[in-house]
Design goal:
Blueprint (H helix, E strand, L loop, with lengths): L18 H11 L2 H19 L5 H25 L1 H4 L9 H4 L4 H22 L2 H22 L6 H5 L5 H11 L4 H24 L1 H6 L5 H4 L2 H19 L9 H26 L5 H24 L9
C-alpha cells in the first residue's frame, strides 16, 4: 500500500505595504525632523536678508527646494548606512532595515529628489542658490557620510557644514550673493553642531561602538566630551554677536545675549557633572534639547528683528 504524500503547505507571501505605508516609508528616508530644523533657519535668514518679507513665490521655492535637497541627502545617507543602521538600536526601524523600501528604490528616490531640489532652487530662486544646494548634498553625502563618518571622531564637526548650507542658500536666494551676515550665520550653525550632537552621541554610545562609528561621545569619556561642548558653546555665542556690526537690531541682540547665556549655563552644568563623574543620560539629553531651543529662539528673533527698531550698531 502506497503512502500518499501530502504536499507541504505553501509559504504565505509577504503582503506588499499599502500606498500610505509606502509613502510614510519614503518620508522617513528623508529624515523629516532634520528638515524641520533646517527650515527653522531658512525663512528667518531670508527675512533678515530682505529687511522684510521676500516675495511669496521666492519663499516657497527656497523652502521646498531646500527641504527636497535635505531630504535627498538624508535618503542617500540611509542608503549608504543601511549596513550599520541594522546594528544600531536607534536606527533599526528605518525603512531600508525593515524592508519597506528596497535599496534600489531608495537610490532612485534619492537621485530624483536631489535633481528636483536643484531644479526648484535654480529656476525658482537663482543659479547661485541651486549651486549651493548641490554643495549641501555633496557635503552631507560624500564628505560626511562616505569620507568622515566611519574614519574620524571629527566627523560631525566638518561634516556638519552641510547643515549650515541652508542659511547660505536662503541668503543667496534673496540677494543673489553670499555676504558677511550669511557667513556669520553659517559659522553660528557650524559651531552649534558639536554641542548639539555630541550629547546625543553620549546617550547612544553603545550603538556607535557596536557599529564601529568613531563618534566622539562614544569613544571619548564624558569629561573630554563636556570640555569640547563648553568650548564650542562659547565660540558659538561669541560668533552670534558678530551679527551686531552687520546690522542686527535689538530683538536679535537681546536673544543672542539671553539665550546664549542660558545655553552656556547648561553647558557648564554638563561639564561640572562630568568632571565629578555624575553625568547622566538625562543631563546630556537636556543639553541636546536645549541646543535646539537655543537655535530656534535665535532665528525667530532674527525673523522679527527687521520689523522692530533699527540696527544696534
Amino acid at each position: 500500500m502506497k503512502t500518499q504524500q501530502v504536499p507541504a503547505p505553501a509559504r504565505p507571501q509577504q503582503a506588499r505595504p499599502g500606498f500610505g505605508r509606502k509613502a510614510r516609508a519614503y518620508l522617513a528616508l528623508t529624515k523629516p525632523r532634520v528638515i524641520e530644523l533646517l527650515l527653522v533657519t531658512t525663512l528667518p535668514t531670508m527675512i533678515f536678508a530682505q529687511g522684510g518679507f521676500p516675495p511669496l513665490g521666492l519663499i516657497l521655492a527656497t523652502l521646498v527646494g531646500g527641504a527636497f535637497a535635505a531630504g535627498s541627502a538624508g535618503a542617500f545617507n540611509c542608503y549608504i548606512d543601511r549596513d550599520i543602521d541594522k546594528i544600531m538600536q536607534r536606527t533599526e526601524n528605518r525603512p531600508l532595515v525593515t524592508g519597506e523600501v528596497t535599496p534600489r528604490e531608495a537610490l532612485v528616490f534619492s537621485w530624483a529628489l536631489g535633481v528636483l531640489a536643484i531644479a526648484i532652487l535654480w529656476f525658482g530662486a537663482n543659479p547661485l542658490a541651486g549651486a549651493l544646494g548641490v554643495a549641501a548634498i555633496f557635503l552631507y553625502v560624500v564628505v560626511y557620510t562616505l569620507v568622515l563618518k566611519r574614519r574620524t571622531a571629527q566627523n560631525i564637526v566638518w561634516g556638519g557644514a552641510a547643515g549650515c548650507m541652508p542659511v547660505l542658500i536662503a541668503w543667496a536666494a534673496v540677494t543673489n550673493a553670499v555676504e558677511w551676515p550669511a557667513v556669520v550665520l553659517f559659522l553660528i550653525i557650524f559651531l552649534w553642531t558639536p554641542p548639539h550632537y555630541w550629547p546625543l552621541s553620549m546617550k547612544y554610545s553603545d550603538d556607535y561602538r557596536a557599529a564601529n562609528v568613531p563618534m566622539l561621545g562614544a569613544i571619548a569619556g564624558a569629561r573630554t566630551v563636556s570640555v569640547q561642548v563648553v568650548l564650542y558653546a562659547w565660540a558659538m555665542v561669541a560668533c552670534s554677536l558678530l551679527l551686531l556690526p552687520a546690522g542686527a537690531g535689538w530683538v536679535y541682540s537681546c536673544a543672542a545675549v539671553g539665550a546664549g547665556a542660558w545655553f552656556l549655563r547648561e553647558s557648564h552644568r554638563l561639564y561640572s557633572q562630568a568632571q565629578r563623574g555624575e553625568l547622566s543620560t538625562k543631563a546630556a539629553m537636556k543639553v541636546f534639547h536645549g541646543s535646539i531651543s537655543y537655535l530656534t529662539v535665535l532665528f525667530l528673533a532674527l525673523a522679527v528683528d527687521p520689523f522692530v527698531g533699527g540696527p544696534v550698531l
